[in-house]
Amino acid sequence: MRIFAGIVVAVVIVALIYSFGPGDEPAPVTDDAVSVEVPVSGIGMIDDARINNADSEPGNWLAYGRTYEEQRFSPLTSINRENVNQLGLAWVKDMGSSRAQEATPIVVDGIMFLTSSWSRVFAIDAVSGEEVWRYDPEVPGETGRRACCDVVNRGVAVYKGRVYVGSLDGRLIALDAATGKHIWTVDTIIDHDRFYTITGAPRAANGKIFIGNGGAEFGVRGYVTAYDADTGEQVWRFYTVPGDPSLPFENPELEAAAKTWKGGDWWEIGGGGTVWNSIVYDPDFDQVFIGVGNGSPWTRVIRSPGGGDNLFLSSIVALDANTGKMNWYYQTTPGDNWDYTAVQDMALADMEVDGVMRKVLLQAPKNGFFYVLDRSDGELLRAHPFATVTWATHVDMETGRPVENPELDYVDKPKWVLPGPLGAHNWQAMSVDVEAGVVYLPAQDNPLIFAMSEEWKKTGVYKRNPGSMNLGIELGALGQIFVDNAAEQPTQKGYLKAFDPLTGEDKWVVEHPHYWNGGVLGTEGGLVFQGDALGYLTAYDKDTGEVLWKFNTYTSMLAPPISFAIDGVQYISILTGSGGGDLFAGEPVAPVPLPASATYGNYGKLLVFKIGGNVELTAPTVVDRTIPEQTLGDMSKEDIGRGERLFGAHCSVCHGLVARSGGVIKDLRFMGPEKHELFNQIVLEGILVSNGMSAFDDLLSTEDTERVHEYIRHRSHEDREVALGNSDAARLTWLGD
Ligand code: CA
Known about the structure:
Elements: H1 2-19, H2 48-52, E1 73-74, E2 87-97, E3 106-108, E4 111-115, E5 121-125, E6 131-135, E7 157-159, E8 162-166, E9 171-176, E10 182-187, E11 203-205, E12 208-212, E13 223-228, E14 234-239, H3 252-258, H4 266-269, E15 271-272, E16 279-282, E17 287-291, E18 295-296, H5 300-303, E19 315-320, E20 326-331, E21 346-353, E22 356-363, E23 369-374, E24 380-385, E25 392-396, E26 401-404, E27 415-417, E28 431-433, E29 438-445, E30 448-450, H6 454-459, H7 478-484, E31 493-499, E32 506-512, E33 520-523, E34 527-531, E35 536-541, E36 547-552, E37 562-566, E38 569-575, H8 596-599, E39 604-611, H9 637-655, H10 673-677, H11 679-685, H12 702-723
Parallel strand pairs: 1-33
Antiparallel strand pairs: 2-39, 3-4, 4-5, 5-6, 7-8, 8-9, 9-10, 11-12, 12-13, 13-14, 15-18, 16-17, 17-19, 19-20, 21-22, 22-23, 23-24, 25-26, 27-30, 28-29, 29-31, 31-32, 33-34, 34-35, 35-36, 37-38, 38-39
């Protein structure tokens, strides 16, 4: 009865926390401080009925998107247009993270359950901010290198007294909600030689836990798995792309899908189609919608040289919740060529469309079109663009297919394309206001210049590299390609939009100078909350977009705010800390301003606000961005160029294009003498692996490492010279002349 005893302890302690007045210290949580026996109740006892009736308890945030519909629109009204100017900090918790925090907390009966970076789980008293328990899955530092987009986690599911988390290294873990004690772990990864991860929040429904994986950039095959919530036993698994066609197919749907893949050895590289974010349970039809990711590699001419749609890449797939059998699919980007995942959050709603009430699914995937589908059969009802889209002119509503812009085909020549791989919208949550008929949407214009792999162009052969990203586009020389085509680069911008998915019109638009901003919360109090790259959490009037309140958190934000209420007091909470998929873009070039994370540092905090809150947040010291002087080595231009190519291929995705970091991962231009001294040991021996900086001795020789090192020294030196006014412009690249 060890588990039961643990629950008793925590119930007692939580009760103590609540009964104590301000300033009293609650007793510490220990294993053996057993008191009276009380029924197992109260802590994390969320079930299907409660989530289905979430509107009857608007003070709680019971599931990832608050309800099964995942509209992320809070019915609470205590914080509203009239008093939001008195909103202040109730409490703040330092989460001990300097990486991106992306989680949506679950709040139930006074306890907040959430994750931080490295898949660490916290249970926190939602009124006082006191920690109830924490669980560290002790993800090995080596895993950092296996994650395309930072060591992030988007949250937990809380279900029937348990907390479920997916760890970055691919474990699905069940914890006791009262104590944080471990109950069971299952390994969700089918092949540990491939770089599978988990960053998404599990979803719980119908006695099952649903979870997918990340890893398409490195070359994996995507799937989603349902596990029994009690035992962790696998109930079903659905693969999103066909495997080796010489082997039996897992189901008839995949056999049919294989006919849309033509000529390539996609199963060698992986195929892609990871389900790394959105999984939504539909109680109306007892089905689960999964958002399927991009192709692996990105470039279709390598992946499937004979053409074809490559099902079920970039698709929304409806699966029977009990069997995992496919009900229907809709492919947003047939023959994906741009990393256009359809994994972005999906919301469900009942909406009148053309005079008929429909049960609809809403999604704004990376490709820039906002889809409205009928949930019963996947019928396409609307597909309006919501940001600048150049890869396609429109979606043909007769065929349901996008009409591609042939001028932006990049097989022969690099082309700037909008959206880029960060998408016109990424995983940052949107909020659906059904009554107003709009979606509050964090959108962006963030282009990439797509260029084919130079190795493939030279040899016609593309070889999968097991330790590296396998994109099919050119990463090694991308800095040079950027420089060569900088004049044609489209404008970068971020937006918060009140977007009508049926008409495609913007009710209002707020422009952000930086493109990479946070998720969104709308409330019945007439407010829309969003954190941004410059470190401000802002409340906008939901009817007009007018700024009604803003608060400087001094840290860039990606996570969505949520709202909850306890004892009649409404709260707004948000996690701070940027990173994620934008590590590669690095330090922005003017006119895009520096994000707060580069100005002040990337402080992972949990901030909770209430009306009249008066806790002060101390302004951090502004980071000294003086680039230290470098001792340049004596190396040929050709060897520095080789270093540049290797840096581009293996380092830039975290440390930033042309060795300029955006402030989250170490900016190598700022390395001091001691780091220069240890450079080879850091890169080849992994002495900083606990930070996520794994050894790269499988990809780099000692000579290569020295070339990379000299390239960084030169980049550092020339940016310093520009900053000191000794030079007009940095050279940036050694490859072009
Ligand atoms: Ca991707």
